[in-house]
Design brief:
The protein is α/β, with parallel strands linked by helices and about 300 residues long. The chain is about 35% helix and about 25% strand.
Length: about 300
Amino acid sequence: MPNAAVLACDWGTTNLRTWTLDAGGEVLASRDFELGVSRLQPGEAAARFQSEVRPAMEALALPAVLCGMIGSNLGWTVAPYLDCPVSLQDLARGLVTPPSAEGWARLAPGVRGEGLDGASDVMRGEETQLFGWLALNPDRARGRHVVCHPGTHAKWMVVEDGRLTHFITAMTGELFAVLRKHSVLKSDAAPDDAAAFAEGLAAAGDGGALAARLFTARARVVGRGKAAETTPSYLSGLLIGAEAASVPKLLGVEPGTKVAVLGDIGLCALYSQALQAQGLACETFDGEAAAVAGLFALYRKATGQ
């Protein structure tokens, strides 16, 4: 592709997102592939990247930088975890050249930190979006910021003077999916009822005794005659509300603190509603733009630009 300078890839468990970027980091083309690492056989990533992804993106000769689960033991090859605190420069130094790569290609490392009560916590992919968010506004590299990245495994990250110093993972998205498909709360209804979501937020309280609060999702239907099709929305509100009520306190976030919510805009809107109900100010940011900026920043650091 004329003017293309780099192929940027966010390769996760279920999906692969790709962008070709020009020399200034602007997106020239983008495409999603159903090639998440959970769909690949061992050793298959290199061949499919070269035979399918590069040709489709007209990027056969472009340098490529990749983040996400492709750098895990389920992906192409392991890019080892870096320990917090971590800077963009640390991530760039930790880039790994995968075996069987044709041309310049690098995989971003994950990040490991101390989570709840001294237990280990890990991430892959979210750190690249975080550093992309920082790169999009140099002022963010100063002071302390709290960034929430909603998703299957939501990440709550603390950034201090441009370094990721601490984070906590909440399995809220996965818990929602499991309960919706494999529990007494199972339902195929869309979670799009705003009133039921707000009801769930209120039922979350301070986020404690979550196992007990979850049963209200059934009791409100069989005991109070609420429509069963509103259960997914109520459950979503309850789970996100419990996360928003409890996790920020673990990071020392005080009422009135501004939280940056980074990720899918629709999901960010739900988290913003939950955070505001807890008295926390927030601002939402597009996760795709941050992913692109983070991958491009890694490429520039790695190549000394």
